[in-house]
Structures are given as structure tokens and as C-alpha cells.
Amino acid sequence: MHTNQLIHETSPYLLQHAHNPVSWYPWGDEALQKAKNEDKLLLISVGYSACHWCHVMEHESFENEEVAQLMNAHFICVKVDREERPDVDQIYMEAVQMLTGRGGWPLNCFALPDGRPVWGGTYFPKAQWMAVLQQLAELNANGKDKLLQQAEGLTKGIQQLEIPVANTDVTPNIYQAVQKSSTRFDEQHGGFESAPKFPMPVALKLIHQTAVMEEDKQLLSFVHLTLNRMASSGIYDQAGGGFARYSVDERWFAPHFEKMLYDNAQLIALYSQAYKASHDELYKRIVLESIAFVKRELTSPEGIFYSALDADSEGEEGLFYVWEYSELKTLLGDDEHFFRYFNITESGNWENGKNILHGDVTREAYARQYQLDPQHFDSHINTALEKLLKARKHRVRPGLDDKTLTSWNALMIAGLCEAYQAFGEEAHLQMAESAMKYLLDQVRQTDGSLLRTTKNGVSKITAFLDDYALMLDALISLYEVTFNEAYLHTAKELSDYTIGEFYNATAQVFYYTAKSGEQLIARKTDVQDNVIPSSVGSMANNLIRLHQLFHLPEYEAIAKGLIARMTKTAEEHSTYYAQWALLAYLQDKRQELVIAGGMAAAYRKELQQHLRPGAIYAGSVDGVSKLALLQDRFKAGATLIYKCQNKTCELPVEKPSALR
């Protein structure tokens, strides 16, 4: 059996390649120095453990002796887990997008020994891959001038910062921009545009919160359509809870079956917020089932959260999740409404005679269509699905990516806080606090820095801006649901560290990498929202919230400067810069809800059951808080609730119901 340098790594993705005949190296000085010494191009191959086409290319090419021989002879081959090293992925993804107009994973990029990219692409079938290898090897031997010229052009493009100059000439209308974004809406199935279709929770949050604030029934209808269709369709694991990463079709029917922590964390938050505004029991069920999935399948014994479940099991995509007609008949008998609701057919509704459980409408709509009692039908479906989940436990499970990422754990903690606000389940708060305790004990270092990834009790890799920004968001969120000021003081310390390491006051930008971290060929920023919110946008939001709580004008100035630079772009492309659009929209609408007195915890729970975009909560039961926002707020024998906005407070009220 072959063994390469990846055998010493902790990343499940890198370990998957540790016995390839390719002489893989992890990203690092050893590989780069070897490329310089041997005058070879770097072959940088980036993927992640749950990536289906990464597995396909590995099987076709990287496990093939002939292909490996060609790779080893002419290149220094470097494997990168994009989830561990998003900074490396970001640079070479941008190079490939500049070269080909598109990107994705697997990502394969060739670079000079100093790391400057020269050519690349995504997935290559074996024959095409071998031709590419031969052409690049020939160019390195006889066309170095061409490679150098290409590298200089690509590197110059990569080094340009994406953040625009502030435009203060025009007063933006974000609400109008959100309304105009409806040209991207799929009004039939929900979601954005056509296949493949991703949930995009950052964009949905923007639309939902502006719709609630503006009482826009049309926008709300689109959000509810999207949430309902996703919850009822194949992208949601009907038997086990939790969402797959995306749907390959426009109907949310056939998922790409990998399940990622970051998707489920954000969708738990989004469905919790939707429940707060609508009290739709469907949204509550989805949140509770999704949290149960995370607890059952993505939670470590220490209480932190694993990264992902693979799409494949037994070498076949989706095999763990799909059903044969005969199997369902054996388990459920002649359950007419179950088979009809989930579109089960004897010949299968998907590939190879298999069935994906998917409904075309919500359970409630189906029950009404067939004149069934909705509660009875819902209970009946749940009982049947419990049987399927029990039977599924005997199948070969998909691969688990059991590394822990600081940023994704922080997203999950914040999602649990949203669920706790909506439903008051103490178990959700306990999960959140347990995970945060582990991160603060294990991931936070004595100098105030964070590490990005943890596995088997070992943490490593200097953290990136998303780790800090999302950790801050989680700490502030935990304070809001506990009024434990230790979380806030930790957040303040971490914010100061983040500004020192990542913020350039001259350029007025947060970089994605720390100044004390590894220096790559470019120091990039991260302003566009994608499946995960922009880390720079998250920092702007954190700084505003901390300013609201501590009164820190210097924080507010940094945040407002960033928002000013991004507002025009957010107005023009609101769903692609959704967090920035929401930040701009909420600038004059933010509130502080301050609760002081013995009933503070109870009143907090009552108030937080309602969606209040832009509100932040502060409070204390005993009057000993040193928080600026709580000074002179106490009155003996009473619990007072203050609502403040734009640095002005209304007279306090004594009951949550009296708050306008």
C-alpha cells in the first residue's frame, strides 16, 4: 500500500488521500521549498471530505498508477482541505475563475514554486487530466517565459482588493432594492433562479426581515413559499432531519446528499426567526428535527460540532437516504397517504428504482386537500418516519468529517441561541453553552488568538477572520439569552485582538488573514455573502452591537465606514451582498431593549419570542452590572423595560405587553 506525506495530517479529507500513489504533500514550506529545489510546478488540488466529484476524480485519476507516475515525475503535488485553509482556496479559486469564468471543487491549480498561479480548472476526466499534465510539464520545460507572464497577470488581478470606495452622493433605498431582487425569485418553487438551487440563508434572512419590518406581504409570501417547499421536499431529510447542501433541480427534489454543519446552523436560525414572526408549527418542527439531527449525528462527546456528512456511502451517492418501494412496503404496509404524499412509486421516483421522500406541498395542505385532520395526519407521518429512521440505523453510514471548525461551530451556537429565543428549550441553550465552553478552553490561546480547527483534542492552524467574526457573533448571542456578562467581556477582548490583527486603518478594511499568520501571494478580504455570511460584514455587525452595549464610538466608526463603502454595491446586488444590505437597512432602525430588575430573565424570554430586526437585548436582575447601557436603570421593587433607538430612550414600561 502506498503512503504519502498526508498520513501525518488530521483532516479527514487529506487522510482520504494519504494512500494514493500520488506523492501528495500538505500545504506548507516543505512542498514549496521542494518545488523550488527541483524547479517543478506546484500542482495544488483543493477539495473537502463531502465533495462527490472530488471522490470521483480521486478514483479515476489520483488512485491510478499511470496518472500518479505522471504527476509525481513533473510536479510537486499539494492537497488542500478548503475547510481548513480557505485562504489558500480563495487565492487559487480566484485564479481559476479569472481563467475559466467559473469555479468549484475539486479545484486543481498549477503554480510557480513561489505560489503564483499559472493555469487551472475544476474536475477533469482521466484522459483530459493526463493531457493537461503533459502540456503543463512541456511548458515548464520549454516555455517558462509564457508561464511567468501568465503568473504575473493572474497575481496582479488577485492582489486587487474587492472593497469599493464609499459613495455618499446617493441616499440608498435598500427596501426598494430588495423588492427589485424579485427578478431572481422562483415564484413557483421558491428559492433563487434555476438549478442547481442552494438555500442561501443570508439572502433569505434579508428578505424576511425587511418584509416583516415593511409589512410586505408579497416578499413574505416568497420567503414562506421557499421555507415550505424546502421543508417538504427532498433537500430536507424527511426521516432524520437536517438539510442537504443543495438541490440538483429547481424543485428541491433531488439533493446533492452531503449535509454540512454551516447550512443546518443557519437554517435552524432562519426557521426559528420565521417561527417568531408567523408561529407556523411547520417551522418549529423543522428546527427541532434539525437540532435533533445535529445532536445525534454531528455532535462530539465533548459537545462540539463536526463538519459534515458525506453524500456517498458504499460508493454510491445518496444510498443511505433513499428507499426501494418493496422496502417501504415491508416497513409500513399499505399506507396509502404516506406513499402518495411522498410521491413513492413502485418503479422509483429517482435513479436505479430508488425513491427520495419528497412532498409537493406541506403536510397541512395535503391533509386539507384530502379532507384529513391535519394534526392526525402529521402525527401519522411522524410515526411512519420514526420507523424508517430506526430501520436506516442498520445501513452503512456516509463518511463523517469529524474535524471541528471554529467558525462553523460559532454559526451553530448562534443558531441554537435563535432556537432558544423562539422555543425556550433549555436543552438548546445547554448545547450552545457547552460548545462555547469547549471552544474558549481549547481553541482560544493565551495571547488572545484563536485556532481554526480541532480534532481529537488537538487544535491547529491560525484562525481566519470568519472564525473571529462568527465567534464574536456567537458570544454576543449567548449574552443576549443569558445576560451573563462574561460572554460580553470575552467578546470585547476578542474584538480588540481582531482589530489589531486584521484591520488596516489606512485602507479601512478587514483582511481575511491575520498579519501574524502565513503570508501568501496576496492578502485578501471577504466582502461578498455566499452560503456563509461575509466575515467583514459580520465584523461590521459585531462592532455595531458591541458599541450599542458598551458605548464604543471607535467601533461604530469602523463599522459605519465599512457599511458606507459597501452600501451602493449592496443596493445594486442585494441578494449577493445581503448582509451588507441588511446592515444598511437597519442603520436608523436599531434598538436596545434593556431590562432591569428581578423579573429580567422572564421578561427577556417573553420579549425574545417575537422577531425584532435590529434589536439587541441587555439586562440584569441585581443592579450590579458595570455595562454602560444598564447604568441608572434600576428601581427598587420593580422590573423596568427600556426601549432605546438612535441614542434616545422612551419612558420605561413594567410589562413586556406594554412595549410598543
Automatic annotation (TrEMBL):
The organism sits in which domain of life?
A: Bacteria
Name the residues that span the membrane. Answer: none
Q: Which residues form the Spermatogenesis-associated protein 20-like TRX domain?
A: 3-158
Under InterPro entries, the record lists: 6-hairpin_glycosidase_sf (IPR008928), Ssp411 (IPR024705), Ssp411-like_TRX (IPR004879), Thioredoxin-like_sf (IPR036249)
Matching entries from Pfam families are given as: Thioredox_DsbH
- Its protein name is Thioredoxin domain-containing protein
